[in-house]
Structures are given as C-alpha cells and as structure tokens.
C-alpha cells in the first residue's frame, strides 16, 4: 500500500504533510503515540528541506511517498530543489547549553534520529532524498 | 494554532490551542518577546489543547527559558497530552523544564 504527496516549499504546507502521514497511519490502526512520532520525524525533515535547502522558495517542491509492507513503514522524502542538503543526523544536542545560549534550533535531526529506526540521506539525479523507516510494533 | 494570554496578578496564563510547528512557532515567539512578560512571577502554559509540537515549538521555550530564569520568572507547563509530553521526553527536556499534571499544581510550583 502506497500513498504519495507533492508540496510546494512553504512552511504553510507542513500541516498538509502531517495530515497526509496521519491519515495513512490512522487507516492502519497504528497507536496514536507511534503515529505522532512518525508524523514528527517527517515534519522535521520536510521543514529542513523547505527552510534550509530551498530558502522557502515556493517554486520548488518536495515529493513524499509512504509505503507499508507487513509491519515495515518506509517513507521517501525527495527534495526536487537543486541544493544538495545532507544534515548531520547523529549529533546529540547539549540542551543545558542550548538553554544557556537561548538557542532556537539544532534539535530537529536529533529528534528524527531518535524517532525512526533508520534515517538515510543521499543524492539522486542532483537532488537530495531522505529515506526513513520504522517497524510498526 | 491559537495563543490566548490571560494575565492575573502575578502570573500570565498562556493557552495553546492547535499544532505548534515551524510555521506557527513565530506566533508563540512573539508572545514570549513581549517585554511585560518579565513583570510576572510565573508563566503558566496550558497545553490541554496543544495537539502537536515540533522542534521549532520546543525551540521557542528553550530560547526564552534562560531570560525568564534570569528575571525570576518561572515557566510551568501543565495539562500536557501524552503524545506532546513524549516529545519533551525523547529529547530529555522533561528533566530541564517544569511540567506538572494540573493547573493547581502549576500554581503551587
């Protein structure tokens, strides 16, 4: 079973992305806490692509594909913009230091890494692609 | 996302309604940037209707926490839904911020 979505690079479209992932998982009776974790991981990656890779250029777009095979959930997020954007996913934020500095960002990819079983960024045809997967148990 | 501010004598109650993401975080940040925030002894954040939070939403609280502490303003969250608390927990923010179950406990904190 597969669903696809294409969005323009505007942070206003993040709600649409979350509704898309939520809808797909809700139809498969996935527990609410787990749905929220997957929704959050996808939201973080898409927000990074929209804001950091594409500078919120609404002429650019992002394609999402979500597939479940048995209990394995796989999500592909393909940035169709021209900037190659490979974030560091294994950095653990020093939160007491972030608080001291009054820092706003730098936690998104750490969250994604903790929420999903597997997180991969790679390039395909000069575009950045992110693969996320998680066992739905 | 809707943010409603209800001031009282020494506490500011902020009611969050909806989903706090990279788009709506700007709205909450505006509320935290208001200079009169530092006039209160406490900022109480009612999360009963907060149905989602991303790192951008967490970033608003993290970025203002030190300034509030430096001015003796306590930031307290209450009525947090399990799925929202789970996000604080995954990052370890539940041990760095004050999160209590009820408004009565938030007032007493």
Automatic annotation (TrEMBL), chain A:
Record keyword Kinase present: yes
Histidine kinase/HSP90-like ATPase domain boundaries: 12-130
Protein name as it appears in the record: Histidine kinase/HSP90-like ATPase domain-containing protein
Highest taxon above the source species: Bacteria
The UniProt record lists the keyword Kinase: yes
Sorted UniProt keywords: Kinase, Serine/threonine-protein kinase, Transferase
UniProt-listed CDD domains: HATPase_RsbW-like
InterPro entries from the UniProt entry: Anti-sigma-factor_SerPK, HATPase_C_sf, HATPase_dom
Pfam families tied to this protein: HATPase_c_2
GO MF annotation: an example: protein serine/threonine kinase activity
């Amino acid at each position: 079973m597969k669903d696809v979505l294409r969005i323009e690079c505007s942070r206003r479209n993040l709600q649409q992305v979350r509704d898309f992932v939520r809808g797909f998982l809700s139809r498969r009776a996935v527990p609410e806490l787990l749905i929220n974790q997957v929704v959050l991981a996808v939201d973080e990656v898409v927000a990074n692509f929209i804001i950091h890779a594409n500078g919120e250029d609404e002429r650019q777009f992002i394609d999402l594909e979500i597939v479940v095979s048995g209990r394995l959930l796989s999500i592909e997020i393909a940035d169709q913009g021209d900037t190659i954007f490979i974030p560091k996913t294994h950095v653990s934020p020093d939160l007491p230091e972030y608080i001291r500095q009054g820092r706003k960002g730098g936690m998104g990819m750490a969250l994604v890494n903790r929420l999903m079983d597997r997180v991969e960024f790679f390039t395909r045809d000069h575009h950045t692609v992110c693969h996320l997967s998680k066992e739905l148990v | 996302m809707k943010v409603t501010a209800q001031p009282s004598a020494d506490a500011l109650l902020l009611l969050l309604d909806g989903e706090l993401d990279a788009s709506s975080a700007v709205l909450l940040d505006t509320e935290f940037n208001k200079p009169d925030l530092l006039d209160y002894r406490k900022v109480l954040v009612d999360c009963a209707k907060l149905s989602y939070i991303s790192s951008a939403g967490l970033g608003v609280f993290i970025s203002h926490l030190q300034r509030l502490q430096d001015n003796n303003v306590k930031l307290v969250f209450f009525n947090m839904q399990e799925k929202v608390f789970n996000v604080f927990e995954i990052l370890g923010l539940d041990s760095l911020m004050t999160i209590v179950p009820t408004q009565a406990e938030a007032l007493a904190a």
